[in-house]
Recover the amino acids of this structure.
């Protein structure tokens, strides 16, 4: 229980308050609106809110217990996200052993490296070693059908589901003078990123008219994008006290997180459309799979990490 | 009331976790009546996953039919006999023997009927052997004879998707994929229905579940 920092407790109290308000709004909407076509949306909304309670509690517990809790949690999420991703791929029989390596060697190793704070190896394990290993192992397996495509899809899966996502708990190994515990930084990233997703959804449902990319993601609208990104930036700025940033810097950082999150959601949607599915999985009620929830995080986390590391770590 | 093996719940939970199985019942309900579940076959995990996905009170009275040559040794045997209560049957390695067996399928059928008794259900794979995960092979006659001998049986088709990717033929280490198990509405043997047309109908009852 080393992380019971007062600021951390305040931030979590804020989240719980927000969830309580959302739950009440959800229940009121359910009771007030009887139109059948709106009922489905409200049912999904309430399922999402219910899932948020569970996700918040799990995240809060792991964050408070010790850094190890977050490494295990994110490691597990990487594993499950990668599983959702490869399930969608047209993998071939000859990919079996290579996939075994990605799941049971590279994924745990990546999180182990964060656990022992070996930044130099953490940063290159997947982009250098795994990237060369995957095609080599596929070549040894001897099946050349769509070789480049198969190698690239496995590499991209490792990159997104494991490498990029692992940057979130990697924040815990940064050493920032006069700032701590780093758990606050991880919470800040998760808050701004996920609130940006939620607010884009809320603004989109309320005002959404003009679609941004109708082919890729029919639910993304300009109104949702602008409203969501701006309000997430405002919240991120208002939370500057829990970060090492000045308010103006916090605004720029929060804007970056929100924009990268949007890029992640859009890109991962394109993959879903390519494979002809709506969601990556069914694990989180109302949300889809882990990858549907973490797609924005996969893009936001590495950029956030490197911004903080470059400008704040001494 | 039959008692489940103390490990049954844990093993069923582990199997569902590893296979990430998403279970659907389409126009079909779990039912405690004597049932034959018949499914496509692509992996040694098939019956484990199907068995694990049944509700506990039905699972305890459901016995998978499994290949003797694979399951009748060491730890596998202990699991198969004590936990799954598998009915182990001899497989025929080549088609010549198959023909010989087809001439006298009585023995295997009697074995299965005995194992069912008056209130146990069975899980069978009418293709007889594991496929590659592509086309479902033609069904062997066992299902027909079982339906003929015991007309009151519920015959529930099931389709297993992706298990061949988790543990393909010839591999011993699994790779985690999300799999899907779909149960369809029960079929039954019509009076005077010829064997071949019943088996074709049973096979398509399984195949159509893949696309839904």
């Amino acid at each position: 229980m080393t992380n019971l920092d007062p600021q951390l407790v305040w931030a979590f109290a804020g989240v719980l308050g927000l969830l309580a308000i959302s739950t009440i709004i959800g229940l009121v909407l359910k009771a007030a609106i009887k139109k059948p076509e709106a009922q489905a949306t409200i049912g999904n909304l309430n399922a999402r809110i219910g899932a948020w309670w569970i996700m918040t509690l799990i995240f809060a517990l792991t964050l408070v217990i010790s850094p190890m809790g977050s490494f295990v949690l994110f490691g597990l999420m990487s594993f499950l996200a990668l599983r959702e991703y490869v399930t969608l791929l047209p993998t071939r029989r000859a990919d079996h052993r290579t996939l075994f390596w990605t799941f049971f060697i590279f994924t745990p190793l990546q999180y182990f490296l964060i656990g022992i704070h070996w930044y130099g190896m953490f940063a290159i394990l997947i982009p250098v070693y795994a990237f060369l290993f995957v095609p080599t192992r596929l070549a040894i397996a001897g099946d050349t059908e769509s070789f480049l495509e198969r190698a690239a899809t496995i590499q991209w899966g490792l990159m997104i589901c494991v490498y990029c996502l692992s940057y979130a708990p990697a924040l815990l190994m940064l050493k920032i003078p006069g700032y701590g515990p780093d758990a606050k930084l991880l919470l800040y990233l998760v808050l701004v990123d996920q609130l940006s997703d939620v607010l884009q959804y809320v603004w989109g449902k309320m005002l959404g008219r003009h679609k941004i990319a109708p082919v890729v993601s029919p639910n993304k609208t300009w109104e949702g994008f602008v409203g969501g990104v701006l309000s997430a930036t405002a919240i991120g700025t208002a939370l500057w006290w829990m970060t090492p940033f000045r308010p103006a810097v916090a605004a720029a950082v929060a804007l970056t997180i929100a924009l990268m999150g949007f890029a992640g959601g859009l890109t991962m949607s394109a993959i879903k459309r390519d494979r002809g599915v709506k969601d990556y999985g069914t694990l989180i009620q109302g949300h889809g799979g882990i990858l549907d929830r973490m797609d924005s995080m996969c893009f936001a986390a590495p950029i956030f990490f490197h911004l903080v590391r470059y400008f704040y770590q001494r | 009331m039959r008692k489940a093996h103390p490990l049954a719940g844990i093993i069923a939970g582990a199997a569902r976790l590893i296979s990430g199985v998403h279970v659907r019942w389409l126009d079909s309900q779990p039912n405690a009546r004597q049932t034959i579940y018949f499914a496509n076959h692509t992996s040694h995990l098939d019956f484990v996953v199907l068995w694990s996905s049944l509700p506990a009170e039905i699972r305890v009275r459901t016995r998978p039919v499994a290949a003797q040559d694979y399951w009748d040794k060491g730890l596998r045997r202990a699991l198969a006999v004590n936990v799954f209560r598998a009915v182990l049957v001899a497989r025929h390695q080549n088609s010549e023997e198959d023909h010989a067996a087809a001439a006298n399928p009585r023995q295997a059928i009697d074995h299965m009927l005995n194992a069912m008794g008056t209130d146990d259900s069975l899980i069978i794979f009418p293709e007889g052997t594991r496929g590659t995960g592509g086309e479902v092979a033609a069904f062997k006659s066992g299902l027909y004879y079982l339906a003929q001998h015991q007309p009151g049986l519920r015959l529930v088709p099931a389709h297993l998707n992706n298990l061949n990717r988790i543990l393909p033929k010839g591999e011993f280490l699994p790779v985690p994929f999300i799999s899907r198990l779909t149960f369809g509405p029960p079929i039954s043997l019509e009076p005077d229905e010829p064997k071949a047309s019943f088996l074709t109908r049973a096979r398509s009852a399984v195949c159509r579940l893949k696309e839904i």
